[in-house]
Amino acid sequence: MPEKGDVMTETVSGSARRGKASRKGVKMERIFTRPGVHPYDDVKWERRDVVMTNWRDGSVNFEQKGVEFPTSWSVNAVNIVTSKYFRGAVGTPQREWSLKQLVDRVVGVYTETGIKNGYFASDEDAEIFDHELKHALVNQVFSFNSPVWFNVGTASPQQVSACFILSVDDTMESILDWYKEEGVIFKGGSGSGVNLSRIRSSKELLSSGGTASGPVSFMRGADASAGTIKSGGATRRAAKMVVLDVDHPDVEEFIETKAREEDKIRALRDAGFDMDLGGKDIVSVQYQNANNSVRVSDEFMRAVESGDSFGLRARRTGEAIEQIDAKGLFRKLAQAAWACADPGIQYDDTINDWHTNPETGRITASNPCSEYMSLDNSSCNLASINLLKFLGEDNTFDVARFVKLCELIITAMDISITFADFPTEKIGETTRAYRQLGIGYANLGALLMATGHAYDSEGGRSLAGTITSLMTGVAYRRSAELAGAVGTYEGYARNAEAHKRVMRKHAVANDEIRTLDEMDKSIHLEATKQWQQCLKLGERNGYRNAQASLLAPTGTIGLMMDCDTTGIEPDLALVKYKKLVGGGSMQIVNNTVPRALKKLGYQQEQIEAVVEYIAEHGHVVDAPGLRAEHYEVFDCAMGERAISPMGHVRMMAATQPFLSGAISKTVNMPEQATIEDVEKIYFEGWKLGLKALAIYRDNCKVGQPLSAAKKKTEEKVEEAPAPVVERGPVRTRLPKQRSATVTRFSVGGAEGYMTASSYPDNGLGEVFLKLGKQGSTLAGVMDAFSMAISISLQYGVPLETWVEKFTNMRFEPAGMTDDPDIRMATSMMDYIFRRLALDHLPYETRAELGIFSAEERTAQAAGQDPASLHAEEDVDRESLAQSVPVEQPKAKEQPEPPAAAHSSTELIESHQGRTADAPLCLTCGTKMRPAGSCYVCEGCGSTSGCS
């Protein structure tokens, strides 16, 4: 039995819900709250205005004024929750305007359901449950997945699950049902996965005598359907996973499907079609709305290892109809992933070896992000814990509160299955019979850094493993307690031995963890205790839930909880882009950095110096006073010291044995990685016991080209000759803070923006031009042109040389402008360089080039010498510009990010000098950031995934 102080709850079995004898509820005890004090009363609240704009054209995407949130919540979290989760039409009295209303709506349903179904021993216990849940949510300690916030407590169906697995049989009726079921799931804001291996291959005959179409052909229809449906009303595109077994006769066609389409994209792009993400022509390309994975068996992997042949089997009879070279097929799998990041790989025998319900059926598929793996026609509702909330000021991990929070979450999630609606009756039946849950966490990367652990280190992996083991141990122990109070899940009896076997496997894996310091030792000690109780209670009571834990991408809800890192991911980079209350934004160094430096023993003066260095450079290499052996603590997913691909794989391997499901994560690989490198990653994933793995090689997608800036710099270093007597040109960079002007102009009806930055002595040193739609060819060319001009100016090329070359250049658009000094222009280039000349060149130089201001031309017409206008004054050239001065940053150590940066990903690009591999958000145009195997938009919270 649980010790005194543990939170106890009780649910009711399916039979009780149907009117049979209900069981007595149990007592609950407080974790965070105090008797007689409502959790909202312990929070400081404030009113804010939420105005979200599209930075490309300044249009307002969303506006709601006077919303109420805790003062501790960031602008990003407030904006995302207000725009995505508040229900009711904007501008009507029915619209939610306070976080209290949102949390009351959701928690009210959980508490009411618990009371109605006998979950609690008394009204007081129900109140404690209600208060604890509200406290945890309002204080960003954990969050349910998005469908809970979308649907619970509304007039909509109470869909709470983010992840669904469907099934498809080898009949036309089943295939058409698949299309329909996916559409319903996408409409509800969730994602689904399916294994198509039951469908006969194109090498097999139909009963009528004809040849079967094969699963790849049916993928086209499902892909087209997914491409037209937006999840959650209008917030994100459908997310889906398609799996095919490695012994399917069409597996080679499946492997090469998306790589061929990527070739098509390149050809169409080169022919002038708009193939950008969201472009009008990208819809002509197939198979782009799903993640693809090949399900490999141990038999196949051993054949790869030994170089043997492998049989592809007919779907109806199971006989081998073709023998192939296993190593050759594995090579094609790696080559396709190298070329376009698809397909990923799932390890079938490992997945099913950890399956608690094998007597019911095999696990054949996963959700779109590969973390939920369970029976066909099933679903899973997710919840993720903010790990950083349990790190005390003294750098100790609050094990006791973490244990109690896990108990509370599992109890609440089990209640949700009682009231939840499901998109199909088959899914509802399976979920109610097996009650799969998905507790997980976010902010692991931030926690590791804050405690002085490198992500790719034995200490980091030990801490991650112990936390994961503790979380799952508590979850299953709570499940066993609930089973003793209200009964096991309906499918437990036939799977009891298998379920208990998997519990023992988890406990054995926990015993094999090697702890390295006091923090992970204390966590491991509690985890061991929890697994011992779990096994004892499970042997006596059985279990309430077939599955308990997984690691989801935590995209939108990670932003809602103000997490620095998502899921199991490390920090993306050491600097990020932060929105400010009242508008504006600034670049900040992540708060975990100074905390880590303090933990490593640095003094305040040293910490400030390192933080200032990171703010300027984006990395810690050569930071003043920072010891080289501490560099690894600050390694990130991107940047100067990016974590190696195998570092990500090893972290996954450290946590996988303690998860019911799997891990949503993509292993990023550098552009220069080879096909052999991909083969090694996929092979090591099998050896290390992972359930699934996906890779992404930088710039393998057409829409994400590498900037030439960094490469050119590197080439110059490599090509530098031996020391010579004469020194070449020296680049003089602009200071971190510099004066600049922003000019809005129109030439022949085409609008643009020009930002010109100057040295302290007023010499022009940088030009940025903004023309065309973000991501378009014109915008890309102008970005490259701006960089070329800026670098040349910093190497000393005179501005007048550029003016001489580009004025009077003729091409469309041309004609009238809105500038009184330059009424007509023969082209954009003609206008831009005339404007730069007027703003930055002395009169004598401009006179030789024939460029005069309106005032100077007026003087000429009146018979005066225009030079007399400048004879008695030192010309302030900036005052001649038809522009607005750029506001200077207020804090030295936190300068305003470049004008082009609108997210942390774009900020990282400015530090690295290259384009990050991330898509643009379809809703607001902001560049998204990785979140597990998906992407999330910091601007509006939209995701490319299903959580």
Automatic annotation (TrEMBL):
Its EC number is 1.17.4.1. Gene3D superfamilies: 3.20.70.20. It comes from the Bacteria. Keywords: Cobalamin, Cobalt, Disulfide bond, DNA synthesis, Nucleotide-binding, Oxidoreductase. Belongs to the ribonucleoside diphosphate reductase class-2 family. SUPFAM superfamilies: PFL-like glycyl radical enzymes. It catalyses: a 2'-deoxyribonucleoside 5'-diphosphate + [thioredoxin]-disulfide + H2O = a ribonucleoside 5'-diphosphate + [thioredoxin]-dithiol. InterPro entries: RdRp_reductase_class-2 (IPR050862), RNR_2_N (IPR013678), RNR_lg_C (IPR000788), RNR_NrdJ/NrdZ (IPR013344), TSCPD_dom (IPR024434). Its cofactor is adenosylcob(III)alamin. Coiled coil: none annotated. Residues 161-696 form the Ribonucleotide reductase large subunit C-terminal domain. Residues 735-838 form the TSCPD domain. Catalyzes the reduction of ribonucleotides to deoxyribonucleotides. May function to provide a pool of deoxyribonucleotide precursors for DNA repair during oxygen limitation and/or for immediate growth after restoration of oxygen. The keyword Kinase does not apply. Residues 50-140 form the Ribonucleotide reductase class II vitamin B12-dependent N-terminal domain. It holds the Pfam family Ribonuc_red_lgC. Residues 1-20, 857-912 are annotated as: Disordered. Signal peptide: none annotated. This is Vitamin B12-dependent ribonucleotide reductase.
